[in-house]
Amino acid sequence: KYKFNNLNYLGVNVTLFTTRTPSTFMKLLEDIKINNPVICMSGAALYDPYKLTYLETVPIKKEVANKIREEFALYNVTPFINQIYNDTLYTYVERIDNDGEAKYANNKKNAAYENFIVGTAPYEEVLYFLLIEPKEIADKMMNYFNNGIYKDDVFVQIYDYFDPIMECKDLKYVKIYSK
Q1: Which three-class secondary structure state does DSSP give residue 12?
Q2: What is the dihedral of CA 73, 92, 87, 154, to 10 degrees?
Q3: Which residues does 163 contact at the CB level (< 8 Å), separation at least 6?
Q4: Has residue 164 got a pLDDT over 80?
Q5: Nearest 5°: phi and psi at 118?
Q6: Quick check: 156 and 142 in contact, CB under 8 A?
Q7: pTM value?
Q8: Which of 143, 175, 171, 173 is nearest to 156 (CA)?
Q9: Angle of CA points 62, 64, 38, to nearest 5°
Q10: CA dist., res. 82 & res. 60, Å (int)
Q11: What is d(CA 158, CA 139) in angstroms, rounded to the nearest whole number?
């Protein structure tokens, strides 16, 4: 906090980049003064933490997102679908398939700056998809999206699921964004 606030005091322009959503980074900014919007969700959105608005978003092309949703059904994979309406992030999931998804959903239920809905997401623009799957399925999805028909439309991030309380060593986060 001290370093950020000191940089601001010195007049340095600081821009934060994060994979997080506003619901997870706003608490971290409570005592920090920054002078630029936050590049969040791995570049899928530009968020103004003072006006609480999305200044810019880069959703996945609607036709591509709809095809990807159909393919998830073929693989029996349930994504968390993230969409923005009226400066609010909505996270949808149709069903919970594992302990990691249950924990993630539980954390989202009462999160500030977003809404969590168990149900079918509207067929509108998708900001990003999030999967929480065993390593084998996560690797398969990453390979599919990096080398398949969507490789020019989306980029994929994969990283370890971490929860200090739960034993979910085999789970991975897979995030799919517009390229």
Answers
A1: coil
A2: -30
A3: 100, 103
A4: no
A5: -90, 110
A6: yes
A7: 0.89
A8: 175
A9: 65
A10: 11
A11: 8
